[in-house]
Specification:
The protein has 202 residues and is an alpha+beta fold. The protein has a single domain, classed as Beta Polymerase, domain 2, CATH 3.30.460. Helix content is 52%, strand content 22%. Strands 1-2-5-4-3 form a 5-stranded mixed sheet. Helix 6 (143-158) packs antiparallel against helix 7 (165-187). The protein is flat, with a radius of gyration of 18 Å. The structure holds ligand 0O2. Residues 45, 49, 53, 69-70, 103, 110, 112, 114, 118, 149, 152-153 line the site of ligand 0O2. Keywords: ATP-binding, GTP-binding, Kinase, Nucleotide-binding, Transferase. GO terms for molecular function: ATP binding; GTP binding; GTP diphosphokinase activity; kinase activity.
Amino acid sequence: MNWVEFLAPYKQVVEELKVKLKGMRPQFEFESSHSPIEFVTGRVKPIPSIIEKVKMREIAKENVEQEIQDIAGLRVVCQFVDDIYTVVDMLRKRNDFTIVEERDYITKKKKSGYRSYHMIIEYPVEMIHGRKMVLAEIQIRTLAMNFWATNEHSLNYKYDGRIPAEIKERLQNAAEAAFLLDEEMSKIKHEIQEAQWIFHRK
Ligand code: 0O2
């Protein structure tokens, strides 16, 4: 496998989508309205991580592009849970890609405690030899969900996917605490936004 050649369109997609999604924030600021987007990140899945997934799921070489949907990964981080659905609605209205699948791990959290909204999109990228359709995953989550997922991801890496039961339980409790934090913050959303607006004007 020539990885540089294989990953080139994915790199391009991540760069293009980062610009497009990041570009939404200043538009809200220009209109003096609350931006549902706090920040955007993107990455191309590391090669060892792709190889591991291929091996674990016994994916045939010719099916890698179709089966591993998060080689190009974008993350949109929001302040409030409501904002996630605002972003989802805005993404559904776009004409520069098509949505292939949506997974709501917020209303239906994962067993680990993981919460996030996932969108798999098909994005047309113009390469020097023509257009290529590339799958990408957009994860949309709150700051609290992101804090939890980042920490859990590190622990998963540390324990090679076998987190001890006691830590797993603590993580599940932490996931609930994070969700409670999101709920409490949502209840005082307007107060927070007013404060941020005053701060922004100073
Ligand atoms: P990495 O290192 O972030 O790239 P399946 O698990 O079979 O339903 P699939 O294809 O894994 O299907 O998709 P899913 O579940 O939507 O997960 C894709 C990505 O979501 C993961 O990529 C993670 O980034 C994130 N994710 C899903 N579940 C969890 C979780 O329990 N904890 C954390 N921290 N992240 C999660 P990768 O390839 O697993 O990892």
